[in-house]
Specification:
The structure is a homotrimer of 345-residue chains. Chain A is mainly β and 345 residues long. In chain A, 6% of the residues lie in helices and 57% in strands. Chains A, B, C: It is a multi-pass membrane protein.
C-alpha cells in the first residue's frame, strides 16, 4: 500500500492497460513539538517534518505497450507547522520533484527537476533519512541535493547494479555557471547495499560555504549490511570547494549508523564527524531516535540529537528556523529533542 | 454527501477499515459581482467568496484500531476572481488549515495551524459565517482567527459539552512574542447552542489596532436558539489591546442575528454594534441576505450591507480590496450589494 | 478519454445524476531540451512546455436538473523544468483558469478569470497552439489572453455559430484602467472553421509595447479548412496601441499554417509576418514541427523555428528565459530547436 493509497486506476478500454496505468495523489504530514538548546533555548513546532519531510504530490505511469511507459512526478514540500509552501513568497510549488519521462528496456530518461543520482545513492544510509534533528549534516554547506533544468538517465537493474546520471543545464550563454553533473552507482544484493556518488556543480551558488565559492566537487560512498537484529551503515563524503580566485578547501564527513527493530517500532542511532581541511575546525554529532508504527501509514516518534563544534566550526542541527533562533557561537554546541506524528496518505 | 464528494476509499485489506479510512479532496468556489459605495463607488468581483471563502483541501482519517484514528487536513484559500492564492507572493498555500493528529477516547490532539477553539465556538453564530459583505466585524482589528506552530486539544463530546484549547508557540528565545493561547467551550443540545471563547495573544502583531499594541486579550460569548420557523442568535465580544507602554483600550462588539428558511433558500439578517472604550468612536452595521440552494452543493445568493461609523470610527465592510478602493473617511459609512454563485465539491 | 483520466464520478443517490456530475483532476507535464541561437547560444530545458503548457487543474460539472448545470474550473501553470509555479513569488496559483458558473439552455455564465472569447476564437488556428518555440507571436506585446475579475457569457451552439463575451472589471473608482471587454464569434461546420475576435483593454498595462500605452484595441480573424490530407489555416490580427498623450501605433500580424497527419503523428508548419504601422519595422517567422503520438495521452515532438527582424524590429521566439538569455539585437534574428515529451493525465 505504502504511499499509493489514493491510487486511481486510469480508465481505459483494456483491463490490462488499466492495471498498469495509474495516477496517484499522495502526501505526508509530519510535525510535532521540538526543543532546541543552542546559545539560547527555543520551543516550537517542527517545520517540514521530524522523520519524513511533509509533502504533497502526484505521480503516474502509463503503459505505452512494448515495455515502454510514460512516467511523471510532481511533488512539493509543505511546512506543516504554518501551512506555508517552500516558494520564495511562501506559496506551494513542485520543487521537490517535477519531471516527465519514459521508461523501457533501455532504462529511464527524465526531464525536469529531481533528487540527484549521487545524493540518492548515499543519503539512504542515514538512519534518519536526512530529515529532522537527527539527520547527519553530510548534505548541507551549499551541496545541492536536487538538479533542475536537468536530463536524468538510469540504467535498468542488472544483477543488483544500477547507475544513474544527471546533467543540469546551467542555461548560461557565456559561462558554465550553475551547470550540474552528478553520477550515482548502487549495488543491492540481499543484506548488502553499497552506493557511490559523484557531483560537479559549477558555482555561482547561493549558500556556498565560502561566499566566493565557484565550484563544488563531491564524491561520497556509503554502505549497509542487514544482520536481521540490526542494520549497520557507514558513509563518507568528501567535498571540495573552489572559489574564483583559485582558493579551495575540503570538507570531509564520516557517519556510522545503526537501526534495529524493537517491537512495532525501530531504534535508530548515528554518529557523524565533520572536518574542514584548511583549519582544525571540526564537529561531532550524535543522534538517537525511536519510531513507533501505529500502522503502515502512521507513526509517532521521538529523537534526541547533540552536536558539538571545535576550533571555530559552526555546524548546527537540522531544525530550520528553530536552530537559527536557538543560535550557535563558533565552537559552540546545540542539542535538541523532537517528538511528533507522521502520517502518509 | 456534503463536501466529501470525491471521497476516495483507502485501499485496504480489511473491508471494515476501508469503510473507516478515507482521504477526501474537496473545495469551494464562490464569487460574483460586488458593488461597494464608500467615499467613492467601486464595482468588481468578490475576492474570496460571498457566502463561503473559496478553498481547496485534502483531509483524511485512518482507522488505527482500538478506537484510535490518525487525522490530517491541508487546506488553502483561493481568490476565485483572479486565481491567486493567499501567500505573500500570490501563490497557493495551506494556511487555512495544516495539521496532523490523533483522535481517540481521550479526545483529539493536533499539531500545526488551524482555526482557534475560541473563534470556532462563537463565529458560528454570525448568520453570514464571517464571510462576504454581510459578515459582522467581530473578528477584525488584529484578532487572529488561526493559531500556528500550535498544539490543539479537544475533549470528546460529553452530554453536549465540548472544550478545546490551542497553544501556539511563539518560537522566540527571549520573549513571549507571538505566543497564542485560546480556549473554546461549547454546549449544543437540540435547538439550543451556546459558545464561549477566550484568547490571549502576545503582541508583536501586524494589523493590530494600535501600531504599538503588544497584547490582545479577548473573551467572547454567543448563542442561538432554533424556533423552527427561524433561528435567533446573539453574540458579544470584548477585546482588550495593550501596548508596550502600558496603554490599553477595549473594543466591545455586539451582534443580533436571525436566519429563516424560505422555500429552497434561507433569509439571513444581522445587526452589529462596535464600540471603542477610550473614545466615543462606534459603529452600527446591518446586513440582509438570501441564499437560494440549487442543490446541496450549489447556491446563488444576494447580500446587502450597510455600515455607519460615528465619532471618528473607521470600521469598513468585509470586502477586501474593493472596500479599500471604495475608501472610508473617519465617521463615514459604507454600503454594498453582492450577488454570486457558490459551488462546493 | 482525453484529459479526464482521473474522472471521479460524484457519489450520488441517483445513478443518472452520477453519470452527469463529476469532478476531474487533470494535468499536463511537457518539457525537453531546447537550443536557442540569438546573439549568443543557450541550451536548457523548456520552461512551460514545447507543445502544451504544463498545468494542473480541477474541473467539475454538477447536474442541477431541468437542463441546468453548475460548473467550475481551477487550473494553474507549472514550470516543469524547475517545479516553479507562475505566481510572483514562484508559488503555484490558479491563474490559468479560475471560475464558477452556470450552464443551461440560455448558454453559459461564468465569474472569475479565464482565456478571453476573442483569444479562443482565433488562437486555435495556430498549428503550434501558441505554445513552444514554433508559436506565432500574434499574442505578445502587451496583449492579455486572459480576463480577470470578469463576467463571461457564451451562447449555446446554434447551427455551428457561437458567440462569447467577457467583461473584466477594472475595479477602479476614478478611471477605466484595467477594464477589459472582449468578444469572440466562431462558426464551425464540418471541415470549415472561422473565428473572429475583438478586444478593448483600458491601459495601465504592464508589458505594453509602449511604456506609456494606455489603451489596446484588437480585432482578429482566422479560419481553417480540413482537406483530409492536410488542414490549412490563416489568421490576421490588428492591434492598436494608444498612450495617454494621444499617440498611437498599430501592429499587424499575418499567419499561414498547415498541419498534416503522417503515420501516428502530425507535421505542423507556419509562416507569420508582423509589421508596425509607425515605422518600417517588421519580422518574418517560420516554424516546422513534428509530434509523434505514443498514445492518446503521451507524445514526443521536435520543433524548429526561425525568426528574422528587419528595420529595427525586436520580435523574439516564444522560449521564455532561454530566448531572453540568447539575446536579440534590433533587426536581429533568433532560431531554435526544441525536442521533448508531453504527457497528459
Amino acid at each position: 500500500m505504502k504511499k499509493s493509497l489514493i491510487a486511481l486506476a486510469v480508465l481505459s478500454a483494456s483491463g490490462l492497460a488499466m492495471a498498469q496505468s495509474s495516477v496517484t495523489l499522495y502526501g505526508v504530514v509530519d510535525t510535532g513539538p521540538t526543543y532546541i538548546k543552542g546559545d539560547k533555548n527555543v520551543y516550537g513546532l517542527t517545520n517540514y517534518g521530524g522523520t519524513t519531510n511533509s509533502r504533497l504530490g502526484l505521480r503516474g505511469t502509463e503503459d505505452l505497450g512494448g515495455g515502454l511507459k510514460a512516467i511523471f512526478n510532481l511533488e512539493g514540500g509543505i511546512g506543516t507547522d504554518t501551512g506555508e509552501g517552500k516558494a520564495a513568497g511562501g506559496g506551494f510549488d513542485f520543487k521537490r520533484t517535477s519531471y516527465v519521462g519514459l521508461e523501457g528496456g533501455f532504462g529511464i530518461v527524465r526531464f525536469g527537476r529531481e533528487l540527484t543520482a549521487s545524493y540518492l545513492a548515499v543519503s539512504r544510509y542515514d538512519p534518519f533519512g536526512d530529515t529532522g534533528i537527527g539527520a547527519t549534516r553530510f548534505w548541507g554547506n551549499g551541496y545541492a541535493a536536487r538538479v533542475e533544468n536537468g536530463i536524468t538517465y538510469y540504467t535498468p537493474n542488472i544483477a543488483g547494479f544500477k547507475l544513474g546520471v544527471n546533467y543540469g543545464f546551467g542555461e548560461q550563454t557565456a559561462s558554465r555557471d550553475n551547470r550540474y553533473i552528478t553520477l550515482g552507482a548502487t549495488y543491492d544484493n540481499g543484506p548488502l547495499s553499497v552506493g557511490f556518488g559523484y557531483d560537479k556543480l559549477n558555482g555561482n551558488r547561493v549558500g556556498g560555504l565560502n561566499p566566493a565559492a565557484e565550484d563544488l566537487t563531491t564524491w561520497q560512498l556509503g554502505g549497509s549490511y542487514d544482520l536481521g537484529a540490526a542494520k549497520l551503515a557507514a558513509a563518507y563524503k568528501n567535498t571540495k570547494y573552489k572559489d574564483d580566485l583559485g582558493n579551495s578547501e575540503k570538507l570531509k564527513s564520516y557517519m556510522l549508523g545503526v537501526t534495529a527493530p524493537v517491537g512495532a517500532g525501530k531504534i535508530k542511532a548515528a554518529y557523524s564527524h565533520y572536518k574542514w581541511s584548511d583549519s582544525s575546525a571540526k564537529a561531532n554529532e550524535f543522534s538517537l531516535g525511536y519510531v513507533y508504527d501505529l500502522s503502515k501509514r502512521t507513526a509517532v516518534y521521538g529523537t534526541y540529537a547533540y552536536l558539538k563544534n571545535k576550533n571555530g566550526a559552526t555546524f548546527g542541527l537540522n531544525a530550520g528556523n528553530l536552530a537559527t533562533s536557538a543560535g550557535l557561537t563558533a565552537s559552540g554546541k546545540q542539542q535538541g529533542l523532537q517528538v511528533g506524528i507522521r502520517h502518509a496518505f
